[in-house]
Amino acid sequence: MLSYSELEKGTIFILDGDPYEVLESSFLRMQQRKAVVQAKIRNLANGKVISRTMHPSESFEEVEIEKKEAVFLFSHRGQFTFLDPNGPKSRFLIEESIIGEKAKFLKPNLPITLVYFRDKIINVSLPIKIDYKVTESPPNIKGSTASGSGKTVTLENGLEIYVPMFINEGDTVRVNTEAGEYVERIEKK
User: Fold this and answer.
1) 163 touches 173 (CB < 8 A)
2) Mean of pLDDT values over 42-70
3) Are 92 and 121 in contact (CB under 8 A)?
4) DSSP E strand stretches across the chain
5) Burial state string for 71-105 with b = 16 or more CB within 10 A and e = fewer than 16
6) Which of 12-16, 32-36, 118-122, 175-179 has the lowest mean pLDDT?
7) Is 5 helix (H, G, I), strand (E, B) or coil?
8) Which among 46, 117, 108 has a CA at the least distance from the CA of 83?
9) Is 104 helix (H, G, I), strand (E, B) or coil?
10) How far is CA 168 from CA 17, 150, 162, 175, in A?
11) Of the N and C termini of the chain, which has fewer Cβ atoms inside 10 Å?
12) 14-20 long-range CB contacts below 8 Å, 24 or more apart?
């Protein structure tokens, strides 16, 4: 069991039956009261970040989270097919409810990390930045590139993002999966 003072950055523990990871923690001392720990923690099952005050009377169960590499192959009717990179013949399915909003960033042959808690997949971790080819881009209007405006383009996996005017069909762009935003152009057509 962990005491409230052992909740340091990176510690994984169970709270209300779900695994949480400590993102930030600091001691807080108030006049004539016992010290408490102000912590920012992330629920590893759904990704939500919350702030919580930990008191000296509380104790927490430390837990081991297992992570495995996998490769995304394709999706069909709300089921996503993945491949174990160590055993090319071992394919498995993951429901859309586990992947959630991250599904829009998936593309064939994308390496990802699966997060296991008690032998069950609870989350999918994507690379922070992924490169995509632009499949549809509206034409540039003369003079519009000087103002720093942008346009919406469609990527190879169907995702639509806002990019600068100089991005054209056939270019390769890098997208931040945490913010869902354009980062830079990698390759010009």
Assistant:
1) yes
2) 88
3) no
4) 2-3, 12-15, 18-28, 36-43, 49-54, 59-62, 66-76, 79-84, 87-95, 110-117, 120-125, 129-136, 150-155, 160-164, 172-176, 181-187
5) bbeebeeeebebbeeeeeeeeeebeeebbeebbeb
6) 32-36
7) helix
8) 108
9) helix
10) 48, 12, 12, 15
11) N
12) 14/60, 14/61, 14/63, 15/41, 15/52, 15/60, 18/43, 18/44, 18/45, 18/46, 19/43, 19/44, 19/45, 19/63, 19/65, 19/117, 19/122, 20/44
C-alpha to C-alpha distance for 129 and 179, rounded to whole angstroms: 10
Q: What is the pLDDT of residue 90?
A: 87
* Residue 25 CB neighbour total at 10 angstroms: 20
Closest by Cα among 110, 98, 92, 97 to 157: 110
d(CA 161, CA 68): 30
CA distance 183 to 186: 9
Residue that has been written with the tokens 């590139």 in this structure: 145
Q: Residue 112 pLDDT more than 90?
A: yes
